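Record pair follows.
FIRST:
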Amino acid sequence: MLVYKRQIPTTNEYNYLNEKVGWGSRNVDIVERALRNTLFGVTVFDDDKVIAMARIIGDESIFLYIQDVIVIPEYQGNGIGKEIMNILLEKINECKEINPNIRVYLGASTGKEDFYKKFGFITRKDANLGEGMILKID
């Protein structure tokens, strides 16, 4: 039975899920710090097995960023990602009570853009905000 918990995953759950989708694991201290600074999280279990997660980072009033939307491959295509996004949007709507104009970002993995468009996301370019950029780290 699938259970959606409004909670941040543990460090081990986080690294497990990242490994399952090919993103690799990170140093435990780094993951713990990142998770402590998470505003909101959703972790999904099939009985006791962790199978999916997502989190929101941000300041809760001007900017939010949806991060780490992960559903392990054998569970993809079953509506789990959709339910996760609906739960995240509930939290985002709570933040809109503070600021109706809060800006919500996410970085879609290549090929996943259409999934996020179903929830109203558009590209920065389509919103006349320019291209999204990241700092190149060597």
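SECOND:
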Amino acid sequence: MEIHVREEKKLVEVWLTHEEKENPHVREQLTCLYQQCKAEHYLAVEFQSGREDLTSLTSSLLCCNRNRMAHAEATGNRNGA
């Protein structure tokens, strides 16, 4: 678990692995942290790791975006739709 506090934005980022997000002890710790954040008017954001292959998913996303850009250029649509 990684916790990043952004004082200037009153933001707390919590980064969890797949195993941590399912661990009852970790969930209990986070409940206390989130209550403290609320009391101090901080926004708590939780990021959870998934089980998919990040490399292939990122590659697919980049290819999809490139295809949309090429289509937009070919049709003269600058919004990419």
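COMMENT: The radius of gyration is 19 Å.
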